[in-house]
């Protein structure tokens, strides 16, 4: 919107934070338009390098491995809170307050057996992954599986209502599950 600061890639230079992608470039490379879209600043947030290059990246890789196995994934990702720790210490904002540094990053993954399934194909046994990871240094060697949680916990953190197109009894079961369909390959 007019009057809002327009974030530039250079705003992250020297900040101690990576330009963290909510949708990774490796997930959107089928067309040139898709590839360009992931580099829009609306898809990028200040992410601690150890988070971005550690458990977050490993979860992204494991999701791609599931797709290579023939699964179809529905992924929702975002951030919550204020204040993360990058290579230069704790920060709440960048660019004189124009960019908020999040305290955590979260991701929800619904895993369907194969492409083309509909909403009606989702059952109580459909695998889901939910994680909340701290936006901080010192976690690069940790497995993303150590940050598993329930979708309910992500809803409580964010105030959002996920999986709201599912009938309520099914939604409640899936959102309460802190399950993992397979161990991390990382």
**Do you know the CATH topology?**
Extracellular Endonuclease, Chain A
* Number of helical segments with 4 or more residues: 5
Strand line-up of the largest beta sheet: 3-8-9
Mean pLDDT value: 93
Specify the CATH homologous superfamily: Extracellular Endonuclease, subunit A
CATH C-level: Alpha Beta
CATH architecture field: 3-Layer(aba) Sandwich
Q: Radius of gyration, Cα only, in angstroms? A: 17 Å
Query: How much helicity do the residues have?
Result: 10-25%
> What's the β-strand tally?
9
SSE run: EHEHHEEEEEEEHH
What's the overall geometry? globular
End-to-end separation in angstroms reads: 41 Å
Taken as a percent bin, the fraction of beta residues is: 15-25%
Q: Structural class of the helix and strand makeup?
A: alpha+beta
Q: Catalogue the unreliable spans.
A: none
* Total tally of structural domains: 1
Q: Which sheet architecture does the biggest sheet show? A: 3 strands, antiparallel
